[in-house]
Design brief:
By secondary structure, the protein is α+β, with helices and mostly antiparallel strands. The protein folds into 2 domains: 2-83, Aspartate Aminotransferase, domain 2 (3-Layer(aba) Sandwich); 86-206, Aspartate Aminotransferase, domain 1. The protein contains 7 helices and 6 strands; from the N terminus they run βββαααββαααβα.
Length: 209
Amino acid sequence: FHTDAVQTFGKLPLDVRHIPVSLLSLSGHKIYGPKGIGALFVRRGVKLQPLLFGGHQERDRRAGTENVAGIVGLGKAAELMMANQTAESERLRALSENFWLRVQQIFPNATMNGNPASRLPAVLNLSFPGFESTALLMSLDLQGIAVSNGSACSSGSVEVSHVLRAMKLPRERAVSALRFSFGKYTTEAEVETTLQALARILQRKSQFN
């Protein structure tokens, strides 16, 4: 059983001794480490067939010279992240929860997609029924605000998120969903700027609906 823990890494406690998975993957850039480096936890006893052949690197699992600089960078980023993980997670949760409260004041019909209690502290997926997410995304982008209407790895896609489809959301909610992400360098001032821009956009577009 494989778990993609890329988004969880650095946001919530992650201890493979207490998670019943066979494989677990991580990515460096999600914790402000180098791009192009990641890690794969392999439970003892799990056998993997190599995709590349020619050398004995990485215990015969992947041939080729290791990315030593990337490995060191990932290790240092993880060290720095672990030193401040709890405080940073609490800060991000406070930012995102305040954002959600303010969004409800601006647009009472907004809905949160996912479990409010068990969501990641740094990510909000919100629906704005009556609006197309692509139109909202483009309007925010024109004001220098980056949001997403899908997963980060499928940006550029205009289709409804397959995750929201799997959650069996009504189509009106799925097509109006935006993802707001908060990070290490996100400030309260930036959150306020985003809220003000969102309020203007929703008000302007509602006049034409």
